Amino acid sequence: MLRNSKESFGLISILFHWIIGLIFIGQIALGYLMVRVSDFTLQFNLYQWHKSFGFLVLGLSTLRLLWKSANLRPRDPATLSPLERVAAHGAHVILYLSLFVVPLTGWAIASSSPLRIPTFMFDLVVIPSLPIAISDSAEAFWSASHAWLAYLSAAVAMLHILAALHHHFWKRDTILLRMLAPRAVRNGGRHAT
Ligand code: HEM
Ligand code: HEM
């Protein structure tokens, strides 16, 4: 129930997937909006929330990788073609990398900014700066890298979501069900209509 089986993801992997996935999508929307807001106080507050949730993604993703390394990966259903297997696994690797690289480049913006605004996580913990160069040009570099990587990972996440919906509603296999409930899938194959 808690751990993955050969057929399905367990409860812990499922919770990690949906909690991190939803925060990640929320972070893309929040990041896009906050850089375009004109009210200074609102913008400052949105930046603090964005940084806090970004660190939450980084922390949860570290725990998720540790959990993944201690668990089986459910085997691919027989309905997947070799090309789909490669595409799905490639997308998962890119998404796992994004969960680390996007918040880390965000952290690099905060650390390289000459404004030196301290970073708090939910007003509770002070996050130290990364030991990197502090200058306007370094901040501009990390800002551009963060934005590009965030939007590229959003594009891969969009393809990933469309693929999951395609499998569920078009191919009617168990790919989405096994990421929704631990016991939804026992013998693989196709789900009932
Ligand atoms: C899941 C993690 C994160 C995602 C998906 C994400 C996504 C984004 C996006 C989409 C933008 C808007 C880019 C633009 O249109 O210019 C943005 C901006 C920004 N993010 Fe993040 N971010 C994450 C984590 C973080 C973290 C951990 C920090 C800092 C500790 C951070 C700091 C910033 C800053 C300072 C900006 C504004 C950059 C500017 O003013 O040009 N982000 N982020
Ligand atoms: C909200 C819509 C989403 C849906 C419907 C969805 C659906 C799924 C499904 C069905 C799987 C299982 C695939 C399999 O059995 O091989 C999966 C795995 C995965 N998803 Fe999502 N996903 C969503 C959002 C996201 C987001 C936003 C991210 C990351 C930014 C993400 C990252 C991953 C990763 C890394 C895996 C591989 C898990 C593993 O094998 O350890 N997903 N997703």
TrEMBL record:
Coiled coil: none annotated. Its main location: membrane. GO terms for biological process: respiratory electron transport chain. It is found in: Cell membrane. Keywords: Cell membrane, Electron transport, Heme, Iron, Membrane, Metal-binding, Transmembrane, Transmembrane helix, Transport. It is a multi-pass membrane protein. GO terms for cellular component: plasma membrane. The chain crosses the membrane at residues 12-35, 47-67, 88-110, 148-170. Its cofactor is heme b. GO terms for molecular function: electron transfer activity; heme binding; metal ion binding. Residues 9-180 form the Cytochrome b561 bacterial/Ni-hydrogenase domain. It comes from the Bacteria. Belongs to the cytochrome b561 family. This is Cytochrome b. The lineage of its organism: Bacteria, Pseudomonadati, Pseudomonadota, Alphaproteobacteria, Hyphomicrobiales.
